[in-house]
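Researcher: We're teaching a course module on how sequence relates to structure. For the next exercise, students receive a sequence and then see the predicted structure as tokens, so they can try to spot secondary structure elements on their own. Here is the exercise chain.
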Amino acid sequence: MRFLRHLPNLLTAARLPAIFLITLWTYWAGPWASAALALFILAALTDIFDGWIARKLDAVTDFGRLMDALVDKIFILGLLVGLAAIDCLPVRQWGDGGQTLAVNGTTVLLTSFGVMLIIIREFLITGLRLVAAASGQVLEAEGLGKIKTFLQIIAIGHLIGLRAYETHWNLSAEWHQNWEVIIMVLFWLSVLITVVSGASYLIRHRRHLPGLAS
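Model: And here is the predicted structure for the students to work with:
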């Protein structure tokens, strides 16, 4: 029973090593990319079930709340950085004589810029929450923040899925192009909401920022 009370935190912590496996397997491509997609889906589901299990077992703690939010950010940012780095490398399709997939430098540059915007936003908001916590106030997540997290997860899942299909399942050229468009729309929509929600959050809680408490 004591183990069960620690299960939510164990599920939360399990998402950390999953970052490295998902990134590595996605880079290896072929059937490994399919395994990366399966592991990503499993890791994303733990984000739902760790909180549900904690409430069912009456094991909700301040430490659990803090770690769940922190690990969520590390999980998403780690995968975004890892997958952006993979995009900079040429990909060889699985199997003998596989075709080398070209790298679009402009797309990589723009994607890296979007990832940097997301990282900057998360550090600013985390810093703001730490400042507020130092004065004994807890700043809760807002609706837009939850939407951007959902979009980021969906975009990452689609990106890993595309890698699996283009190197393992031999997706048709037409579907490949359509899927790339879907991924870019999801990604840049998540970047837009990330920036807007971050700016809104900073303005709403600017009283916690030195020199802007007015």
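Model: If you want an answer key for the exercise: The helical segments are 2-28, 31-56, 62-87, 105-134, 143-169, 173-204. Confidence is low (pLDDT under 50) at residues 89-103.
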